[in-house]
Amino acid sequence: MAFEKIDIPSPRDHFIREIEGRIIKGKLTAGEKLPTERELAQQTGIPQSTIHIALRDLEHMGFLKIVPRQGAYVADIAKDGNFETLSELLRYNGGKIGYKMSVEL
Description:
The mean pLDDT is 87. The protein is mainly alpha-helical. The protein has a two-stranded antiparallel ribbon.
């Protein structure tokens, strides 16, 4: 009997998907400041070093803007998004983008 591979996301991947989802659903809005890395680590139970890497990944994907010594801010994905942002939006929505999102992009 063969079993299918079970794919369990790492804490980093889970954190990234959580932040992406909140941004896409509008729970986090453009310009909103996120808590510090230390605060996020305490709130989520994820190591601070992992939070740091995840925030950098989210910046690379176009979801965040990190300002040194000031913090991480939600990016305006419709205005400042890149190819990575579009790729993540498609992945998040099962390969589809709704009319509203397509107009914004």
